[in-house]
């Protein structure tokens, strides 16, 4: 009898039982459902509305479940995709525009599996359905904001150097600086070059005026920063709002692709992505009276905004910003200890804190405001030249003051924002700020919704291809290698259990259609190791080895070849995951897991079966069925 370590039997058993447990929830597929949510982001579906929905479904003869509450939405399970589509059409016409009725999928995993943390594999957009957005970053706004900041830097530099100037004008991507005389212009060249290295100073001008042109390299860096910062902020936002397995990636120079698997409520997705909020802390131009603000004409260096807490009373603010939303490091909703009203506690980074300290130390006793800037994207119905109606995105920006308070002392990095209407508004503002301020507004230029039925078709097609491939492989192995072929087939089934269990266990792993292709490819490659081992055993038998010696030699000598072949494939999988995005990464993940699993089952799994069959008798086997 060969000496095969018992711990390998126990290891194999533990891996199969553990992976089998976590693969089990995949036998409980999600069922079609409709999800009803109020157009108000914080609103819930009241009980009378739920009763009307259930009554309408009963009248239409649509089989349904009792309904369940998920966050602020209400979900009703249905029997089939056809019933789901009929139910959405019926309920949408019943509730009108006050509520959003979306297609969704409801889980059916038993509670005892959920208790041990077992759940089905995360499915990608092409399998589960969801929404796909293409966002356009508004680079003009980015450049405008930075040019305004550079203009202020130029003025500060000239004042610090004691150089008198008449004006600093922004002319597109240029700064035009008019000075008193040519002597002042010559004196300003060196300090401006040092303070503004992002610009090229025009040397040809001899009159008392300097022109600074923004460098192309700076423009490219600015665009990269804006797109990457927006991508990071959007990724944080969808994670904060609980949208799992989202894909947020850059496309081209100034666009971002966002895919939200499982989200069938397009209006909810637009609220997540199309709504951007940021803050600006500004001084109130208190020297101007309220009557001046009511005229709608802003004095030089100021802007007029409505004050939301004072019935939209106009307020005149300084144009210069003390701090902005991209300098916010943390924001949490809370309540004022004295009045009990909702508030948002904000923390600034070091740059924002220094600016706040510098400005507030010079303006103790003066009022400071919090300007709230919100960009929303809504879908507008338009009619083209052919008379066809279609939905197009339209962005609107609201700017209003939410708080004005007198500066009592020098401020640092911590603030309280009051003047909010409700805890829900305070919580949403804190969430948007905490998730990260966008460096520039974004516009939804493309929107696609993939229904769960299409995802189900993809899953069925993938399963059919996998079943066909497995059937052919199993048949070939049994015909060619007889009993040993059966061992390889059992190991192949165990390999699939391990892949599904590991994919279900890893929180960030997502199965996509290319991922299914990776599993199908793994099924074909999984028996490669067994083929090498079995051919080696056959060769040893032809050379006159005894059956047990041939088994030892076959598994021992083929191991190095198997390891080398699979390491090269794993290297390719790692490169695909590192260099690829989206679906390519999904393929790489399943391929990598499949390679490790196939090596484990082929080397340890089949060896355990061989030992149980040929290695436990008192007498050595006279012949191997291979």
How would you describe what is shown here?
By secondary structure, this protein is α+β, with helices and mostly antiparallel strands. The chain has helices spanning 6-23, 47-59, 81-95, 111-115, 125-128, 139-160, 182-195, 216-240, 266-273, 290-294, 350-362, 423-435, 452-505, 513-526, 528-542, 547-579, 583-614, and strands at residues 31-38, 68-70, 73-77, 99-106, 122-123, 130-137, 165-171, 174-179, 199-201, 209-214, 247-251, 255-261, 276-283, 302-307, 313-318, 323-324, 328-335, 342-348, 367-383, 389-406, 414-417, 442-450, 510-511. The protein has a 4-stranded antiparallel sheet with strand order 2-3-1-4, with helices on one face. The protein has a 4-stranded antiparallel sheet with strand order 11-12-6-22. Strands 7-8-10-9 form a 4-stranded antiparallel sheet. A hairpin with a 3-residue loop joins β11 and β12 (255-261). α1 (6-23) runs antiparallel to α13 and α13 crosses α17. The longest helix is centred in the C-terminal third of the chain and has 54 residues, at 452-505. The radius of gyration is 33 Å and the shape is elongated. The two termini are 19 Å apart. The mean pLDDT is 80.
Topology:
Layout: H1 6-23, E1 31-38, H2 47-59, E2 68-70, E3 73-77, H3 81-95, E4 99-106, H4 111-115, E5 122-123, H5 125-128, E6 130-137, H6 139-160, E7 165-171, E8 174-179, H7 182-195, E9 199-201, E10 209-214, H8 216-240, E11 247-251, E12 255-261, H9 266-273, E13 276-283, H10 290-294, E14 302-307, E15 313-318, E16 323-324, E17 328-335, E18 342-348, H11 350-362, E19 367-383, E20 389-406, E21 414-417, H12 423-435, E22 442-450, H13 452-505, E23 510-511, H14 513-526, H15 528-542, H16 547-579, H17 583-614
Parallel strand pairs: 5-23
Antiparallel strand pairs: 1-3, 1-4, 2-3, 6-12, 6-22, 7-8, 8-10, 9-10, 11-12, 13-16, 13-19, 14-15, 17-18, 18-21, 19-20
Helix pairs in contact: 1-13, 2-3, 6-7, 8-12, 13-14, 13-17, 14-17, 15-16, 16-17
């Amino acid at each position: 009898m060969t000496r095969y370590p018992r711990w390998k039997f126990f290891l194999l058993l533990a891996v199969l039982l553990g992976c089998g447990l976590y693969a089990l929830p995949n036998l409980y597929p999600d069922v079609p459902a409709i999800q009803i949510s109020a157009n108000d982001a914080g609103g819930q579906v009241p009980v009378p509305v739920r009763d009307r929905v259930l009554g309408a479904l009963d009248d239409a003869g649509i089989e349904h479940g009792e309904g369940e509450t998920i966050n602020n939405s209400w979900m009703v399970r249905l029997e089939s995709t056809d019933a789901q589509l009929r139910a959405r059409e019926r309920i949408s016409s019943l509730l009108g525009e006050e509520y959003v009725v979306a297609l969704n999928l409801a889980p059916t995993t038993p509670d005892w599996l959920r208790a041990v943390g077992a759940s089905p594999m995360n499915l990608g957009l092409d399998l589960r359905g969801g929404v796909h957005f293409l966002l356009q970053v508004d680079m003009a706004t980015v450049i405008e904001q930075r040019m305004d900041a550079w203009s202020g830097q130029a003025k500060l530099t000239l004042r610090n150097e004691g150089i008198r100037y008449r004006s600093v004008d922004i002319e597109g991507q240029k700064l035009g600086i008019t000075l008193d005389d040519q002597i002042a212009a010559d004196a300003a060249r060196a300090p401006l070059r040092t303070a503004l290295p992002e610009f090229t100073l025009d040397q040809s001008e001899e009159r008392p005026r300097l022109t600074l042109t923004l460098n192309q390299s700076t423009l490219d860096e600015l665009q990269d920063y804006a797109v990457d910062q927006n991508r990071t902020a959007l990724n944080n936002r969808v994670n904060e709002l609980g949208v799992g397995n989202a894909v947020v990636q850059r496309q081209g120079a100034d666009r971002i692709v966002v895919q939200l698997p499982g989200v069938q409520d397009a209006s909810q997705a637009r609220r997540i992505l199309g709504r951007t909020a940021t803050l600006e802390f500004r001084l109130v131009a208190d020297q101007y009276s309220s009557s001046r603000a009511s005229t709608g004409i802003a004095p030089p260096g100021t802007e007029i905004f409505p004050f939301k807490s004072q019935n939209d009373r106009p307020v005149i603010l300084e144009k210069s910003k003390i701090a902005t939303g991209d300098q916010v490091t943390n924001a949490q909703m809370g309540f004022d200890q004295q009045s009990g009203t909702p508030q948002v506690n904000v923390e600034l980074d070091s740059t924002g804190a220094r600016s706040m300290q510098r400005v507030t130390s010079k303006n103790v006793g003066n009022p400071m405001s919090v300007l709230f800037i919100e960009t929303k994207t809504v879908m507008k119905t338009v009619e083209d030249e052919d008379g066809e109606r279609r939905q197009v995105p339209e962005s609107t920006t609201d700017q209003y003051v939410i708080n004005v308070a007198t500066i009592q002392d020098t401020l640092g990095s911590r603030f309280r924002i009051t003047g909010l209407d409700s805890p829900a508004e305070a919580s949403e503002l804190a969430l948007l700020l905490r998730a990260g301020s966008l460096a520039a507004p974004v516009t939804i230029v493309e929107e696609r919704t993939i229904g769960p039925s299409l995802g189900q078709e993809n899953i069925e097609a993938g399963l059919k291809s996998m079943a066909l491939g497995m059937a052919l492989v199993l048949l070939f192995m049994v015909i060619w290698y007889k009993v040993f072929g059966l061992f390889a087939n059992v190991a192949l089934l165990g390999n699939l259990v391990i892949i599904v269990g590991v994919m279900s266990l890893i929180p960030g792993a997502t199965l996509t259609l290319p991922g299914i292709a990776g599993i199908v490819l793994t099924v074909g490659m999984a028996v490669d190791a067994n083929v090498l081992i079995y051919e080696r055993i056959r060769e040893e038998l032809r050379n006159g080895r005894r059956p047990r010696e041939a088994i030892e030699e076959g598994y021992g000598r083929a191991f190095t070849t198997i390891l080398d072949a699979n390491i090269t494939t794993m290297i390719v999988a790692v490169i695909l995951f590192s260099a690829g995005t989206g679906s390519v990464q999904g393929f790489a993940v399943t391929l990598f897991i499949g390679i490790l699993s196939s090596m484990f089952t082929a080397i340890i799994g089949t060896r355990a079966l061989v030992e149980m069959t040929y290695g436990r008798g008192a007498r050595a086997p006279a012949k191997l069925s291979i």
